[in-house]
What does this fold into?
Amino acid sequence: MAASEKNFSIRKLQRSDRARIRELCCETGFLGNAIDPVFEDRELFADYLTAYYTDWEPESAFVLLVNDEISGYLLGSRFPKRQQLYNIYNNVALFLRGVLRYPRYNENSKRFVRWILTQAWREVPQAPRRTAHFHINLLPDARSVGYTRAIMDAYLKYLHDHGETRVFGQMVVFEDRRGTRMFERYGF
It folds into this structure.
Protein backbone atom coordinates (compact mmCIF):
# COMPACT_ATOMS: atom_id res chain seq x y z
CA MET A 1 0.00 0.00 0.00
CA ALA A 2 1.36 3.40 -0.95
CA ALA A 3 2.16 5.99 1.70
CA SER A 4 -0.77 8.11 0.50
CA GLU A 5 -3.13 5.22 1.23
CA LYS A 6 -2.25 4.89 4.92
CA ASN A 7 -4.70 7.45 6.30
CA PHE A 8 -7.99 6.09 5.00
CA SER A 9 -11.02 4.28 6.28
CA ILE A 10 -14.23 2.76 5.02
CA ARG A 11 -17.49 3.27 6.87
CA LYS A 12 -21.20 2.97 6.34
CA LEU A 13 -23.00 5.89 4.74
CA GLN A 14 -24.49 8.34 7.23
CA ARG A 15 -27.47 10.56 6.50
CA SER A 16 -25.20 13.60 6.88
CA ASP A 17 -23.11 12.33 3.91
CA ARG A 18 -25.95 12.83 1.40
CA ALA A 19 -24.88 16.23 0.04
CA ARG A 20 -21.26 15.10 -0.39
CA ILE A 21 -22.33 11.89 -2.15
CA ARG A 22 -24.44 13.90 -4.58
CA GLU A 23 -21.52 16.24 -5.21
CA LEU A 24 -19.14 13.32 -5.80
CA CYS A 25 -21.66 11.76 -8.16
CA CYS A 26 -21.56 14.87 -10.31
CA GLU A 27 -17.76 15.15 -10.08
CA THR A 28 -17.22 11.53 -11.20
CA GLY A 29 -20.48 10.50 -12.88
CA PHE A 30 -19.40 10.72 -16.51
CA LEU A 31 -16.85 7.96 -17.04
CA GLY A 32 -14.98 9.10 -13.93
CA ASN A 33 -15.11 12.78 -14.84
CA ALA A 34 -17.44 15.65 -14.03
CA ILE A 35 -20.83 15.53 -15.70
CA ASP A 36 -20.97 19.29 -16.36
CA PRO A 37 -19.64 19.31 -19.96
CA VAL A 38 -22.28 16.72 -20.88
CA PHE A 39 -25.24 17.61 -18.67
CA GLU A 40 -25.59 20.83 -16.71
CA ASP A 41 -28.40 19.84 -14.33
CA ARG A 42 -26.46 18.44 -11.38
CA GLU A 43 -29.55 18.22 -9.19
CA LEU A 44 -31.44 16.01 -11.64
CA PHE A 45 -28.35 13.90 -12.37
CA ALA A 46 -27.64 13.27 -8.68
CA ASP A 47 -31.31 12.52 -7.98
CA TYR A 48 -31.31 9.89 -10.71
CA LEU A 49 -28.11 8.14 -9.63
CA THR A 50 -28.06 8.48 -5.84
CA ALA A 51 -31.46 9.28 -4.31
CA TYR A 52 -32.66 5.70 -3.92
CA TYR A 53 -29.45 4.61 -2.20
CA THR A 54 -29.06 7.61 0.11
CA ASP A 55 -32.75 7.94 0.99
CA TRP A 56 -34.21 4.42 0.85
CA GLU A 57 -31.34 1.99 1.40
CA PRO A 58 -28.45 3.81 3.10
CA GLU A 59 -27.57 0.70 5.11
CA SER A 60 -26.17 -0.85 1.90
CA ALA A 61 -23.87 2.06 1.07
CA PHE A 62 -20.27 2.75 2.06
CA VAL A 63 -17.96 5.75 1.88
CA LEU A 64 -14.21 6.00 1.50
CA LEU A 65 -12.59 8.59 3.74
CA VAL A 66 -9.09 9.80 2.89
CA ASN A 67 -7.61 12.14 5.48
CA ASP A 68 -11.11 12.35 7.01
CA GLU A 69 -12.67 13.62 3.75
CA ILE A 70 -15.16 11.58 1.69
CA SER A 71 -13.28 10.71 -1.50
CA GLY A 72 -15.49 7.98 -2.87
CA TYR A 73 -18.52 5.84 -2.36
CA LEU A 74 -20.06 2.50 -3.13
CA LEU A 75 -23.84 2.63 -3.34
CA GLY A 76 -25.37 -0.81 -3.19
CA SER A 77 -28.75 -2.44 -3.01
CA ARG A 78 -29.83 -5.71 -1.49
CA PHE A 79 -33.44 -5.04 -2.45
CA PRO A 80 -33.57 -4.69 -6.24
CA LYS A 81 -37.33 -5.20 -6.39
CA ARG A 82 -37.89 -2.28 -4.00
CA GLN A 83 -35.50 -0.17 -6.06
CA GLN A 84 -37.32 -1.04 -9.29
CA LEU A 85 -40.63 0.07 -7.75
CA TYR A 86 -38.99 3.27 -6.53
CA ASN A 87 -37.57 3.88 -10.02
CA ILE A 88 -41.02 3.74 -11.61
CA TYR A 89 -42.13 6.70 -9.52
CA ASN A 90 -38.76 8.47 -9.55
CA ASN A 91 -38.26 8.22 -13.32
CA VAL A 92 -41.66 9.78 -13.96
CA ALA A 93 -40.94 12.59 -11.49
CA LEU A 94 -37.49 13.21 -12.99
CA PHE A 95 -38.91 13.16 -16.50
CA LEU A 96 -41.50 15.80 -15.61
CA ARG A 97 -38.90 18.00 -13.92
CA GLY A 98 -36.60 17.57 -16.91
CA VAL A 99 -39.35 18.51 -19.38
CA LEU A 100 -39.90 21.77 -17.51
CA ARG A 101 -36.17 22.55 -17.46
CA TYR A 102 -35.35 21.34 -20.98
CA PRO A 103 -35.90 24.68 -22.77
CA ARG A 104 -33.25 26.31 -20.56
CA TYR A 105 -30.60 23.59 -21.10
CA ASN A 106 -27.55 24.23 -23.28
CA GLU A 107 -27.08 22.19 -26.45
CA ASN A 108 -24.83 19.55 -24.83
CA SER A 109 -27.42 18.94 -22.12
CA LYS A 110 -30.20 18.67 -24.70
CA ARG A 111 -28.12 16.16 -26.66
CA PHE A 112 -27.58 14.11 -23.48
CA VAL A 113 -31.32 14.13 -22.73
CA ARG A 114 -32.09 12.96 -26.28
CA TRP A 115 -29.55 10.14 -25.88
CA ILE A 116 -31.15 9.10 -22.57
CA LEU A 117 -34.61 9.03 -24.13
CA THR A 118 -33.70 7.34 -27.42
CA GLN A 119 -30.57 5.23 -27.00
CA ALA A 120 -29.51 4.70 -23.38
CA TRP A 121 -31.88 1.78 -22.84
CA ARG A 122 -30.15 -0.07 -25.72
CA GLU A 123 -26.58 0.79 -24.75
CA VAL A 124 -26.60 0.22 -20.99
CA PRO A 125 -26.94 -3.43 -19.94
CA GLN A 126 -29.82 -4.25 -17.64
CA ALA A 127 -29.03 -5.45 -14.15
CA PRO A 128 -30.35 -8.90 -13.22
CA ARG A 129 -33.79 -8.44 -11.66
CA ARG A 130 -33.38 -10.19 -8.29
CA THR A 131 -29.70 -9.66 -7.63
CA ALA A 132 -27.92 -7.32 -5.26
CA HIS A 133 -25.94 -4.71 -7.14
CA PHE A 134 -23.71 -1.69 -6.65
CA HIS A 135 -21.99 1.19 -8.31
CA ILE A 136 -18.79 2.81 -7.19
CA ASN A 137 -17.32 6.25 -7.81
CA LEU A 138 -13.96 7.50 -6.57
CA LEU A 139 -12.26 10.85 -7.02
CA PRO A 140 -9.19 10.66 -9.30
CA ASP A 141 -6.76 10.87 -6.37
CA ALA A 142 -8.56 7.98 -4.68
CA ARG A 143 -8.52 5.58 -7.64
CA SER A 144 -6.13 2.98 -6.41
CA VAL A 145 -6.23 -0.76 -6.04
CA GLY A 146 -5.94 -0.44 -2.25
CA TYR A 147 -8.87 1.92 -1.83
CA THR A 148 -11.04 0.09 -4.34
CA ARG A 149 -10.30 -3.27 -2.75
CA ALA A 150 -11.08 -1.93 0.73
CA ILE A 151 -14.49 -0.53 -0.20
CA MET A 152 -15.35 -3.63 -2.28
CA ASP A 153 -14.35 -5.93 0.58
CA ALA A 154 -16.55 -3.97 3.01
CA TYR A 155 -19.55 -4.27 0.68
CA LEU A 156 -18.99 -7.94 -0.14
CA LYS A 157 -18.64 -8.75 3.58
CA TYR A 158 -21.88 -6.86 4.24
CA LEU A 159 -23.64 -8.89 1.52
CA HIS A 160 -22.22 -12.15 2.87
CA ASP A 161 -23.28 -11.29 6.42
CA HIS A 162 -26.84 -10.77 5.13
CA GLY A 163 -26.99 -14.05 3.21
CA GLU A 164 -26.64 -12.64 -0.29
CA THR A 165 -24.99 -15.09 -2.69
CA ARG A 166 -24.94 -13.03 -5.90
CA VAL A 167 -24.05 -9.48 -6.79
CA PHE A 168 -24.08 -7.50 -10.03
CA GLY A 169 -21.59 -4.76 -10.75
CA GLN A 170 -21.22 -2.89 -14.02
CA MET A 171 -17.77 -1.45 -14.61
CA VAL A 172 -16.79 1.10 -17.20
CA VAL A 173 -13.07 0.94 -17.89
CA PHE A 174 -10.93 1.99 -20.80
CA GLU A 175 -7.17 1.77 -21.09
CA ASP A 176 -6.73 1.03 -17.39
CA ARG A 177 -6.53 -2.76 -17.59
CA ARG A 178 -5.32 -3.02 -13.99
CA GLY A 179 -8.81 -2.00 -12.86
CA THR A 180 -10.38 -4.63 -15.07
CA ARG A 181 -8.16 -7.40 -13.70
CA MET A 182 -8.92 -6.44 -10.12
CA PHE A 183 -12.69 -6.78 -10.64
CA GLU A 184 -12.16 -10.04 -12.53
CA ARG A 185 -10.43 -11.40 -9.39
CA TYR A 186 -13.69 -10.77 -7.54
CA GLY A 187 -15.52 -12.85 -10.15
CA PHE A 188 -17.07 -10.03 -12.18
Remarks:
- The beta strands are 8-12, 61-66, 69-77, 132-138, 167-169.
- The helical segments are 18-28, 42-55, 80-101, 107-118, 120-123, 145-161, 177-185.
- The chain has seven helices and five strands.
- The chain has a mean pLDDT of 89.
